[in-house]
Amino acid sequence: MIARIGIRLLSWVLLAYLVLPLLVILGASLTTTSYLAFPPQGMTLQWYRQLMGDPSYLSAFATSGMLACAATAVAVVLALPCSLALARYRFPGRAAISALLMSPLVLPHVVLGAALLQFGSYFGLTRSFTALLVGHTVIVLPFVLRSVLAMMTPEQRALEEASADLGAGPLQTFFLVLLPQIRPGLVTGALFAFISSFINVELSIFNTTADLNTIPVKLFNYVQYTIDPTIAALSGATIVAAFLAIVILDLTVGLDMLSEPR
Fold first, then answer.
1. Which residues are within 8 A (CB) of 135 and not within 5 positions of it... i.e. 6 or more apart?
2. Distance (Å, rounded) from C-alpha 33 to C-alpha 29?
3. Residue 209 has what DSSP assignment?
4. What's the CA gap between 215 and 238, in Å, rounded?
5. Domain range spanning residue 216?
6. Which SUPFAM superfamilies does the UniProt entry name for this protein (predicted)?
7. Comparing 84-93, 166-175, 197-206, 252-261, which segment has the lowest mean pLDDT?
8. What are phi and psi of 38, to 5 degrees?
9. Is the confidence at residue 213, as pLDDT, over 70?
10. Are the C-beta atoms of 123 and 195 separated by less than 8 Å?
11. For labelling, which of 10, 68, 76, 217 has a CA lying 20 to 30 Å from the CA of 230?
12. Number of domain units in the chain
């Protein structure tokens, strides 16, 4: 009983430690001063209005959102056949291909960004949305691939064989048997992929321009010269957007069901 209470108290302390910085940011974004202050000196939405009134911020938000969604979608489409091939078949070079697909997890994104800039210059893809999409797909693909591969168990293979024995075709087996079983890994991997793409700075900074900017790169450039509550307002807006996305995902998909195959 004492051990259980101690574990709960420790859990609440750790949760408070993680949430406290977010509350500080939200508080600092409401201050009336022209500098970051916590506790806030008064309460105002001035910095949020200033943020929403700046077209460059809105454009950066839109670019980051579209880029993260597109990179996640492409990664999911690529990860499904890759995971099936790696999990279901044995062929020469399988381990090397698996290591190659997972390598963005260990390679510095700065190196990948510089390589993409150099390689893309031969095809005219530098400093464009396409170049950003290619780079972000490369760095988020391993998250989806690892999550889906973890769901490819021998028991699943038996279910697929049973489906084929009962007369179901490959497409029917995929959509009615395999896809529902790997859905938790697919959704989890897509979440990690979206977040990793949305917050990326190191790779994005090599291919952004004044007209094509992501919100992390814009924030990175802004804090080099100015530190005011606009930064906190931008962070606060991102926190609120992330919270709403999690609530919507929980209502539509059900986060409590992602730990178990359905």
1. 112, 113, 116, 203, 204, 206, 207
2. 10
3. -
4. 10
5. 1-258
6. MetI-like
7. 252-261
8. -145, 130
9. yes
10. no
11. 68
12. 1
Show the 3-state SS of 45-98.
CHHHHHHHCCHHHHHHHHHHHHHHHHHHHHHHHHHHHHHHHHHHCCCCCHHHHH
Give 112-171 pLDDT, tens digit per residue: 888 888 888 877 777 888 888 988 999 999 999 988 888 877 666 777 667 776 677 677
Q: What is the CATH number of the domain that holds 28?
A: 1.10.3720.10
Sign of CA dihedral 84, 90, 95, 100: negative
Mean pLDDT confidence for 236-246: 78
> Which ranges constitute the DSSP H helices of the chain?
2-28, 46-52, 55-88, 94-102, 109-120, 129-149, 154-165, 170-173, 179-198, 215-223, 229-252
- Token readout for 144 is 């989806």
Q: Report the alpha-carbon distance of residue 179 to residue 173 in Å, rounded.
A: 8
Residues in the chain: 262
Percent of the chain at pLDDT exceeding 90: 9
Q: Is 106 helix (H, G, I), strand (E, B) or coil?
A: coil
> What is the spatial distance between Cα 77 and Cα 68, in angstroms, rounded to a whole number?
14
- What is the structure's pLDDT at 227? 77
Contact present, 190 and 148 (Cβ < 8 Å): no
